[in-house]
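Narrative of accomplishments. A recurring question from our advisory board has been how the design workflow behaves on a single, concrete structure rather than in aggregate. To address it, we present the structure tokens for one chain from the evaluation set, followed by the sequence designed for it. No filtering or post-editing was applied between the two.
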């Protein structure tokens, strides 16, 4: 075999070496190469000696460089699986995380498979939470809000590919502001759910490079990380049915502070908390007990 011949095996070995001091792994190289070849990873192992042509090498090289710069593999290849569903992602959205699956799973424990809740997902990003819920609750309908037009464009694509166009609406909105003034949304939702930006501004620069390469607008929760919870918890009761649920993902050390915010609003039940896979309280959920604006339903 001529030394300069780039086989799958040799290319992966080279990538592994190149990634060593760049916080990336051989597995990342394998995923990028499978993406270029349009094959699954097992193919690489069974075709180790297969030579790659110039076109394939030219397509692979820039992806390796982007990974070395700190972009996640998901952002580079534009795909991420979440709750068993294939999501389109991009460099403009928060990449769906396993922690957020804990939130979706928690919500699925309170709604019967045949129920038809009306769901509001605030800061929907690529549609992560809304579409997973709509997929597993086939009678449900929903509305997703986001302040990022780029994220909404990705959410539109996911809505189409997940065949949810009939059941999901999307709207450009700074938190809940697009709903205000439209009485049709008052006391309407059975569930308001959100994974808002919750990283304290100054901590963003201490995060993993992959996270720092995600849009800061999806991460930055203000000085103490709690800005969006203060607004969301205060505004949500207006749109939630009595008995409806509010569920949020929170940062690793925010359970107490966010619970206190909810108490101060005064219309929520005792909090129900769920831990993530690492044993950290990551999900908080309440029911709206009273009604702060005189209506009942
Ligand atoms: N969980 C994400 C992280 O730790 C942040 C997501 C968010 O701000 N909502 O990187």
């Amino acid at each position: 075999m001529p030394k300069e011949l780039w086989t799958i095996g040799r290319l992966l070995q080279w990538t592994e070496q190149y990634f060593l001091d760049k916080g990336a792994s051989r597995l990342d190289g394998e995923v990028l190469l499978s993406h270029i070849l349009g094959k699954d990873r097992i193919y690489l192992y069974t075709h180790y000696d297969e030579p790659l042509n110039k076109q394939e090498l030219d397509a692979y090289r820039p992806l390796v460089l982007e990974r070395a710069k700190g972009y996640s593999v998901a952002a580079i290849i534009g795909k991420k699986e979440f709750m068993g569903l294939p999501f389109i992602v991009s460099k403009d959205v928060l990449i769906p995380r396993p922690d957020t699956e804990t939130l979706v799973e928690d919500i699925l424990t309170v709604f019967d498979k045949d129920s038809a809740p009306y769901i509001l997902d605030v800061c929907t990003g690529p549609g992560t939470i809304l579409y997973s819920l709509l997929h597993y609750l086939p009678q449900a309908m929903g509305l997703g809000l986001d302040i990022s037009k780029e994220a909404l464009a990705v959410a539109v694509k996911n809505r189409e590919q997940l065949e949810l166009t009939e059941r999901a609406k999307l709207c450009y909105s700074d938190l809940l502001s697009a709903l205000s003034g439209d009485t049709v949304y008052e006391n309407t939702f059975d569930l308001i759910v959100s994974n808002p930006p919750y990283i304290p501004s100054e901590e963003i620069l201490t995060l993993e490079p992959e996270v720092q390469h995600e849009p800061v607008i999806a991460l930055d929760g203000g000085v103490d990380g709690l800005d969006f919870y203060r607004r969301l918890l205060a505004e949500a009761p207006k749109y939630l049915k009595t008995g409806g649920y509010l569920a949020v993902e929170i940062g690793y050390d925010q359970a107490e502070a966010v619970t206190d915010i909810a108490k101060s609003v005064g219309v929520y039940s005792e909090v129900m908390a769920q831990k993530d896979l690492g044993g950290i309280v990551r999900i908080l959920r309440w029911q709206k007990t009273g009604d702060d604006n005189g209506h009942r339903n």
